[in-house]
Amino acid sequence: MKYTKRFLFITTVCLILTACAETKILERISLVTLIGYDKEEEKLSTTAVVRQISPDFENKVEIHSEIAETSKGARFKINLDAAKKVEAGQVRVVLFGEDLAKEGIEEEIHTLSINPEIATSVYLGIVEGKSKTLLESNFKNITDIGQHVYNLIDHNIQQQQMISSTLHEIERDVHSPIRDFAIPTLKKEGEYIDINGIALFKEGKLVGKLPTADVFYIMLLRKNIRDGTLQLVLPGDLVNSSKNPPENPPEELPIAVDAINSKRKLKVTDHEKNEIDLNITLDCRLLEIHSSLSLEDKETTEKIEKAMNKKMEAEIKRIIKYSQEVNSDIFGFGEHFSAHVRGSKLNTEEKWHNLYPKMKVNVKVDTEIIRNGVFE
């Protein structure tokens, strides 16, 4: 009898909880898959990519754009235009126009983070120009721009060809007093949408950009990686040092490698002078190189590795210098400095941003070609 009463009680509770859940029928709602925000004078322009699902399960994509003081106000206006209730539970990407990003997007990020409908896994992106212009453009080969932009960002991140920029990751950096965040930038190129760089932020405001050619180096600086492709242009005299140099050696030697494993190590060497040693080890596979170079020759391989180290160190130093010029620490140097220097008291953005431009970073790269081509 005791167990029977307990079973009835649990069953009743489950039925009550089930009855309290709001039932949403797909045919009666509109699903927002992408949201774009722009600055429009002193107001916020919101553009929503809305997917309509018919009783025959056919998808129809609509673009709605409204201007209001808040994103909620814009959503209210969009609902007035839509034939079905607009739901934001399927948002996968949020884009910010360049003008809004320069003014600051921390408030918009905060609004997204407290919205229970928005998942923390949504990707954030910056649009060169206005996001509304991009989303309202007619692309001959794109039927669902919301899904297309999501796939574009997601597959590049999964293959480690672009830094990840989920709401969770960006919100974490926003709440760190000594770390800045970076977000991929997108641009309309003819009939296509390209990821064309990385936007650097300081105190929530866009302060600089780096091209996609720098993504591999930026990822090496931010974390250990196990994938990613890099193209380098080395001095052409490497060909002359080969056993069978060609009659007309190239002035430059383009090569392509992919990362198999990388490790970065940071060490504070002089906290009074604000100096850090950055050591990066990279195991890679050589994918493409001039045919006159025999990689079976250990001496030739070592020369290539040394040339790669020199080139990569120069590029990494250039990127760090630029980030110091715009005063955006997207690499987490401040967090490492604070964690390993007793009494540093780097607990505010102002303190670290006063130190970061003056910080000295000693860069050392150690590359090892452990495989080359598919025949080795």
UniProtKB/TrEMBL annotation:
Keywords assigned by UniProt, alphabetized: Germination, Lipoprotein, Membrane, Palmitate, Signal
Recorded hits in Gene3D superfamilies, A to Z, give:
Nutrient germinant receptor protein C, domain 3
Q: Which residues form the Spore germination GerAC-like C-terminal domain?
A: 196-373
Cleaved signal peptide residues: 1-21
Chief site of localization: membrane
Q: Which Pfam families match?
A: Spore_GerAC (PF05504), Spore_GerAC_N (PF25198)
Which InterPro entries does the record match to this protein?
GerAC_N (IPR057336), Spore_GerAC-like (IPR008844), Spore_GerAC-like_C (IPR046953), Spore_GerAC_C_sf (IPR038501)
Cellular compartments annotated: Membrane
Q: Which domain of life is it from?
A: Bacteria
Topology relative to the membrane: Lipid-anchor
Q: Which residues form the Spore germination protein N-terminal domain?
A: 24-187
**PANTHER family in the record:** SPORE GERMINATION PROTEIN B3
The UniProt entry's sequence similarity note says:
Belongs to the GerABKC lipoprotein family.
Q: What is this protein called?
A: Ger(X)C family spore germination protein
Native source species? Ureibacillus galli
